[in-house]
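Action item from last week, closing it out:
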Amino acid sequence: MSMLGLHLHDAALTAARDGEPRGDAAPSIVHADAADPARLGLPAAAAARRTPHRVSHGHWGALCSGDEAAALAALPIVRAELRRRIAPLLAPGDALRIAVPAPFDAAALGWVLAACRAESLPVAGFHDAAALAVAALGLEGTVLAPSISLSHIAVTRVQVADGEARRRAARVARDTGLLQAQQRWLELVAEAMVLRSRFDPLHEAASEQRLYDLLPAAAARAALEGSATLELPTGNGSSAVTLSRDQFAAAARPLARGLVALVESLRPDGQPVSVLLADSALRVPGIVEALAASPGLRLVAMDDPLVARAASLQAIGGEADAGQGDAAGAVRLHRGAALGAPIAAPRIVEVEGGPARAAPTHVLWRGEAVPLAMGAALEVGRAPAPGGIRLDEGLAGVSRLHCSLRRGPDGVQVIDHATHGTWLNGHRIAGRARLAAGDRLRIGDPRVELAFIAVGTGGGADTGAA
């Protein structure tokens, strides 16, 4: 039996048969106008800005939302995309093995299975995408695998032991994603063109679509080469602007910071770990630099089709953990992937530029720089230990011991002790997180902010802010 592997990653839906890529890897932006059945489910990125009301980019995310009404509404579009893009790749006798990222929980997999069965797609199993990738590369130890989707980001922690790569934990942030970054880039380029030539590419749908089409390649070029030039035709000729990697990265900072926060929340305390990034993530300016700012992270790259290739190879399968569907026709979810001969070689990512952001030496509180002593804990809350940061009694959402700051040889960590939560750069931390100069902690309502700085030997302060 031949296997068709499918990676359900909406930023680049990818398929492979017997280890070889099949079809295209276009994002899941498809025609969604039921009144136009001839195009329903076909790729529609080229119409996303011209006719946004006829295009869907959130149908896979709707299956993962936990909202039954949203999932039901998205199901016809999911079925149409599977029918248009995946069914033609299946040969007689093929089975479909589906690799799923962290946001696809049991309920979401139930919807996926229902859509596949409605289109007569023979699903042989669901597999954790991160575990498949780690096994396919032959990585060892603890690996953190980020995933940048159209509307959310996620990180999965995979542990390699006893001949298996297994998913141990995952975190998902649904408040940012690739589409949000692209929107910021769109606005960045439009503002630069208005300032340079008074041409506004967002003044009508056709020019906005042309600019939207240029953005992915321009951002990737800036990430690789340091800058990119975008040029659009105008009524009087053309308008061109050149933007730096730093400008693209600044516009996508919420995405990068959110990804770093998820990585730090899953990182084992004090342990160096590998972070596995798809090439598409490396093409987002600022991602590599943001991750490289955390000491002890080794960045490893993989080709985007790797997960689908691994899913198509029977030797990669691990033990089943749970079933989806009725008892008679259950389809298993495999959170582990058996180790075998690697099907690709990992690539170490070298980071250009200046040094990584420094670990903080002080925390700014009410105009004073409070030192973070080596080996000591600085408590924060309504009733901290002597020498800690005491917050006002009238603040809502603040615990007596809310969090503590610990500085050690490997840097500074914040440990959350509160049921109300502690927020790092806009994202709630899970247990603990590593800090860098320029980071900000938010506590309570109305919120209290703590800012972190690194004071050098020469007496100057480096906030680390971009």
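Closing note: The longest helix spans residues 205-225.
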